[in-house]
């Protein structure tokens, strides 16, 4: 759409929306039996209006040719306008309007059923998502325009950590009319200008914390108030630790508050390695200082909300405590106030972290202490919705399930939503008899089974009972190998990659997983990763209390040992690691210069996993392992002896391409040796005393004395501190020589360095 028609279309939709909101207000005063439906329509129309007002502001203030996404909204705006106009017509009192004005609005009757309202809201949500996505894309485009350009590649993020990532796309949100009081409390807290800066939502495993976090993140995003989100998840690579936490938050904030770009750009120019520094440095230089330096905010929103889910799934307790201490410093940030929602289990180190905060910094709410009647109500609505869907899909009797069965499930579930969700997935699983499976679930009563046993045993016992008696142990061993590996992996793998790592046929792995959809996320795409649906499944299988008491118990230490062994085998095998895996032009190519497609093609996902995580599995084994060479025990591992120095050798280093070895000696020389033959390539003479350190520059061409490796001639002598230098190496760009006595600038094209007292 062109600028004029685009702005005009936006204004038209905003105008009709305002009329509908006004009509809804009239209905809410006059109609008592449909207040929830009226509020739902009014709220959704308000959400769309809020987004379109931001789009209009963007269109009015920017070069429209750069806003390619919002320029493509004409069709959606036209359809949305048509639907809203039809909605307005149906809401208008019509011919009886004069009569209405005489007798008041009490004669009004809400024209829609709840099901009709469901359709209206669902349709409007589609437009809302389209408009919101277009707004976010073009806001980011503006942020990254030439005058505000920022190389976000220097800020590595944790893939899949944001609430709207593909990984989180199909995970549950709160159903309508559930968690209403809690969600409203959080909304009110965020809008309260005098409110505390942090809202801590805690609860035991399975109480629905992540579902609530996704719901509020989505809600604040739809109102243009979400600043950032980070959903921790153990076993999901960088999502399971704090290494990319603040860089991900900073990247999200850039999209909504471009005023922080100058501050972040200044930090990156000063220290391009900031993303690898201490958490305190990352927070202060990428978030706190840039926010404090904002001169003008983009949005007139009251606050920016940051949602942090499952903080307890961050690996290091010390990192968790550090994150909490740093977040507490956001209390008085201006001109962009922050509100931070944190969800976690009430672990001791997290409780202590909050306790260390100053008074007035946070407010908390414990989910499993919410009144039982509220939890029962929400779980009942969830069960009725999910089981009702199963009834329609499987064409069951209209009275299935019986009301007493739903009430029994509610009693078994409270306070865990994960129980209700797992039961519904199990009952509705492919090839099942929902009636038989539901009856089986109800056999696991509270008096006999724990909460996690009631959650997971029905599905697992059913699978085991389907095996022949003489095949059960074989089935259990395969279960422990495949499922046991999945639950302790450091990062999820696809069935293809898992088969390569475990050396198990892919068909066998797929077969084992086909019946576990109620406890695992098993995608139809064989190249997509298999994931845990909930961390409590891992806890159920590896709990030490289950050892000897459960057929499904997984020995976590033994599984880590096997995975470490598989990783080492994969790396050292014929299809494993070799020199120059990516077929690069030569040594010294920077990692940033290699595109992801080359890496993915050259290093399969299973091999990448082995390289990254073999040490993690090794560290979690109870005993240290002595790794022996594959060669015979009497094999002489010495390739050659390098002889030639007349005094002690003080330092040795390899050239970047592995072709040369440089040795520094107390005989005042540096010698270069060919690694293949062991012969002396050249002797570098000229030092006035013993040489105590040696290093190759990144390009490996030159050698404070600089020596040319090709000719053995001294290129130049560098000024350095007047003391012994015992350690020397180059900065990655070869411009600085780093020593234990300080940094020394290096002339262009250094090759090799030898040092002696100056």
From TrEMBL:
The keyword Repeat applies. It comes from the Eukaryota. Keywords: Repeat, WD repeat. WD repeats lie at residues 642-683. Residues 197-346 form the NACHT domain. Pfam families: NPHP3_N, WD40. This is Vegetative incompatibility protein HET-E-1. It comes from Paraphaeosphaeria sporulosa.
């Amino acid at each position: 759409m062109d600028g004029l028609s685009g702005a005009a279309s936006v204004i038209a939709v905003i105008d009709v929306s305002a009329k509908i909101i006004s009509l809804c207000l009239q209905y809410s005063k006059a109609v008592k039996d449909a207040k929830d439906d009226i509020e739902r329509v009014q709220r959704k129309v308000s959400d769309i209006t809020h987004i379109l007002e931001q789009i209009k502001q963007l269109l009015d203030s920017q070069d429209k040719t750069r806003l390619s996404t919002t320029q493509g909204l004409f069709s959606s705006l036209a359809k949305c306008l048509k639907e809203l106009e039809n909605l307005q017509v149906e809401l208008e009192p019509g011919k009886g309007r004069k009569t209405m004005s005489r007798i008041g609005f009490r004669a009004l009757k809400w024209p829609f059923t709840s099901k009709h309202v469901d359709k209206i809201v669902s349709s409007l949500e589609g437009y809302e998502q389209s408009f919101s996505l277009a707004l976010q894309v073009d806001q980011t485009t503006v942020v990254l325009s030439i005058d505000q350009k920022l190389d976000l590649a220097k800020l590595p993020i944790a893939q899949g950590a944001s609430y709207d990532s593909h990984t989180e796309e199909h995970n549950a949100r709160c159903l309508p009319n559930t968690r209403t009081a809690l969600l409203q409390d959080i909304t009110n807290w965020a809008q309260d200008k005098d409110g505390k800066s942090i809202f801590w939502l805690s609860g035991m495993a399975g109480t629905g914390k992540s579902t609530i976090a996704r719901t509020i993140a989505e809600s604040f995003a739809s109102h243009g108030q979400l600043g950032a989100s980070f959903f921790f998840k153990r076993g999901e690579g960088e999502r399971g630790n704090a290494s990319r936490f603040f860089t991900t938050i900073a990247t999200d904030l850039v999209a909504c508050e471009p005023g922080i770009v100058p501050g972040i750009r200044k930090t990156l120019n000063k220290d391009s390695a900031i993303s690898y520094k201490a958490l305190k440095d990352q927070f202060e230089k990428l978030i706190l200082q840039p926010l404090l330096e904002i001169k003008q905010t983009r949005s007139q929103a009251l606050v920016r909300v940051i949602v942090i889910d499952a903080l307890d799934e961050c690996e290091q307790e010390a990192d968790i405590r550090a994150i909490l201490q740093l977040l507490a410093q956001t209390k008085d940030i201006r001109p962009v106030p922050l509100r931070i929602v944190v969800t976690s289990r009430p672990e001791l180190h997290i409780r202590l972290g909050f306790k260390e905060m100053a008074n007035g910094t946070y407010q908390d709410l414990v989910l499993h202490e919410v009144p039982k009647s509220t939890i029962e109500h929400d779980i009942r609505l969830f069960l009725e919705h999910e089981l009702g869907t199963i009834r329609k899909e499987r064409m069951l009797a209209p009275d299935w399930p019986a009301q007493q069965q739903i009430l029994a499930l509610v009693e078994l579930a409270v306070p865990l939503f994960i129980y209700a969700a797992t039961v519904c997935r199990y009952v509705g699983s492919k090839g099942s008899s929902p009636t038989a499976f539901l009856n089986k679930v109800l056999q696991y009563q509270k008096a006999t089974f724990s909460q996690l046993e009631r959650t997971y045993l029905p599905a697992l016992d059913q699978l085991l009972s389907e095996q022949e008696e003489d095949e059960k142990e074989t089935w259990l061993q395969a279960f422990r190998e495949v499922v046991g590996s999945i639950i302790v992996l450091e990062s999820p793998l696809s069935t293809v990659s898992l088969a390569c790592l475990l050396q198990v046929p892919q068909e066998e792995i797929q077969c084992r997983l086909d019946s576990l959809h109620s406890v695992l996320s098993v995608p139809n795409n064989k190249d997509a990763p298999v994931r845990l649906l909930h961390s409590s499944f891992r806890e159920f299988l590896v709990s030490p209390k289950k050892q000897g008491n459960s057929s499904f118990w997984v020995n976590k230490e033994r599984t880590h040992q096997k995975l470490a062994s598989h990783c080492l085998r994969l790396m050292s095998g014929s299809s494993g690691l070799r020199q120059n895996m990516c077929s690069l032009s030569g040594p010294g190519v920077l990692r940033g210069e290699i595109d992801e497609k080359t890496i993915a093609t050259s290093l399969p996902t299973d091999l990448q996993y082995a390289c990254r995580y073999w040490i993690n599995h090794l560290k979690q084994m109870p005993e240290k392992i002595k790794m022996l060479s594959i060669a015979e025990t009497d094999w002489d591992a010495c390739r050659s002896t390098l002889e030639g120095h007349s005094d002690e050798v003080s330092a040795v280093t390899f050239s970047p391409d592995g072709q040369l070895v440089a040795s520094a000696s107390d005989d005042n020389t540096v010698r270069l040796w060919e690694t293949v033959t062991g012969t002396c390539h050249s002797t570098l003479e000229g030092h006035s005393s013993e040489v105590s350190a040696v290093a190759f520059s990144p390009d490996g061409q030159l050698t404070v004395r600089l020596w040319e490796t090709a000719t053995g001639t001294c290129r130049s002598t560098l000024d350095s501190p007047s003391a012994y230098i015992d350690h020397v190496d180059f900065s990655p760009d070869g411009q600085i020589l780093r020593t234990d006595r300080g940094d020394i600038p290096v002339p262009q094209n250094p090759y090799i360095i030898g040092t002696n007292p100056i």
